[in-house]
């Protein structure tokens, strides 16, 4: 079991719950519904990939190869880039910051890390 991935997954999972509660109870008073939806997308994908990271942490005991570490690192990077950029875009909208174009290009890069994480996980469990 990869204790570091397990620990990070636990922290990111707790953060997902806190951010989801914030979106449900307070964010609606600050930004419009379309911005709340963007933020909630970030929370949803963060939560999905927390479970993926937990899976990597547990499976890494049985499948000990570099692909499992790559998968975990890709999931963490994807959460930071994909979800983090959506949180940042929402915060910038709330602060009425005008230029969002540079933040928006980060989101698909985070998505690519999610895809790379799933592919790495697949390779990691199919190779010895």
How would you summarize this macromolecular structure in one to three sentences?
The chain has 128 residues and is mainly α.
Keywords, separated by commas or semicolons:
5 helices
Characterization of the model:
- There is one protein chain.
- The protein is mainly alpha-helical.
- The chain has helices at residues 3-25, 33-59, 66-94, 101-104, 106-126.
- The mean pLDDT is 92.
Please work out how many helical segments DSSP would assign. Answer: 5
Distance between the termini: 16 Å
Q: How many runs of DSSP E, i.e. beta strands?
A: 0
What order do the helices and strands follow? HHHHH
- Which range does the strand content fall in? under 5%
Low-pLDDT parts are: none
What would the principal axes of the Cα set say about the shape? elongated
Structural class: mainly alpha
Radius of gyration: 16 Å
Q: How would you classify the quaternary structure? A: single chain
Classify the helix fraction into a percent range. Answer: over 70%
**Largest sheet report:** none
If you average the pLDDT, what whole number results? 92
Task: Indicate the topology.
Layout: H1 3-25, H2 33-59, H3 66-94, H4 101-104, H5 106-126
Helix pairs in contact: 1-2, 2-3, 2-5, 3-5
């Amino acid at each position: 079991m990869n204790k570091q991935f397990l620990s990070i997954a636990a922290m990111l999972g707790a953060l997902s719950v806190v951010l989801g509660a914030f979106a449900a109870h307070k964010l609606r008073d600050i930004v419009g519904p379309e911005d709340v939806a963007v933020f909630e997308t970030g929370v949803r994908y963060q939560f999905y990939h927390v479970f993926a990271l937990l899976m990597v942490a547990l499976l890494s005991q049985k499948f000990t190869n570099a692909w499992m570490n790559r998968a975990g690192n890709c999931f963490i990077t994807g959460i930071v880039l994909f979800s983090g950029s959506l949180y940042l875009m929402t915060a910038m909208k709330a602060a009425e910051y005008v230029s969002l174009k540079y933040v928006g290009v980060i989101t698909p890069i985070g998505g690519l890390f999610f895809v790379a994480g799933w592919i790495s996980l697949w390779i990691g469990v199919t190779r010895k």
